[in-house]
Amino acid sequence: MNYNVIAAVSKNGGIGYKGDLPWRLKKEMEYFNQMTTQVNQSGIQNAVIMGRCTWQSIPEKYKPLKGRKNVVISKTLNSVPEGVLLYSNLKEALKSLYLNDHIAKIWVIGGSGLYNEAINDNNCKKLYITKIDQEYLCDTFFPDFNLKEFEEINEADVPKGIQEEHGIKYEFKIFKRL
């Protein structure tokens, strides 16, 4: 079973600052929610895998992320809310999710360390990157990836062209592993 990465990345490669997103883009967040929740049949759902810091950065009122199986990777957390899965590493989480008949797609949603691990794993087939055309003060960054290993593709359910919110331009990109 394959999985994907989804991230919004600023012009300077940033994805976060002090445990939060450096921007507020409602339509971009709606895109993230749509991509990570949509499934084609009832009785199944997608899984979102995140590191401890990403989990802790989600406001309490949104935890766990609705309509998705939430999976947290941490070597230090001892507990998570009921229904949320906790694993000490990505491979263990993926192995468990692959065996679950009720999971459609698996998405790695952050942070930097998990993104790096996923990009270097051949089972990670696509990178859904929102390229934000602005620089932000960030302390967490998306890892570089080799464009010789990925090609840019289009998908019908992903909006094309430049989007704009509050004067901030961004574009949805998809990179498929070759």
From TrEMBL:
The keyword Oxidoreductase belongs to this UniProt entry's keyword annotation: yes
Signal peptide start and end residues: none
Pathway(s) of this molecule: Cofactor biosynthesis; tetrahydrofolate biosynthesis; 5,6,7,8-tetrahydrofolate from 7,8-dihydrofolate: step 1/1
Keyword vocabulary terms for this entry: NADP, One-carbon metabolism, Oxidoreductase
GO MF entry, a single one: NADP binding
Protein name: dihydrofolate reductase
Protein's job: Key enzyme in folate metabolism. Catalyzes an essential reaction for de novo glycine and purine synthesis, and for DNA precursor synthesis.
Catalytic activity: (6S)-5,6,7,8-tetrahydrofolate + NADP(+) = 7,8-dihydrofolate + NADPH + H(+)
Database matches in Gene3D superfamilies: Dihydrofolate Reductase, subunit A
Family assignment from sequence similarity: Belongs to the dihydrofolate reductase family.
Gene Ontology terms: biological process: dihydrofolate metabolic process; folic acid metabolic process; one-carbon metabolic process; tetrahydrofolate biosynthetic process
GO annotations of cellular component type: mitochondrion
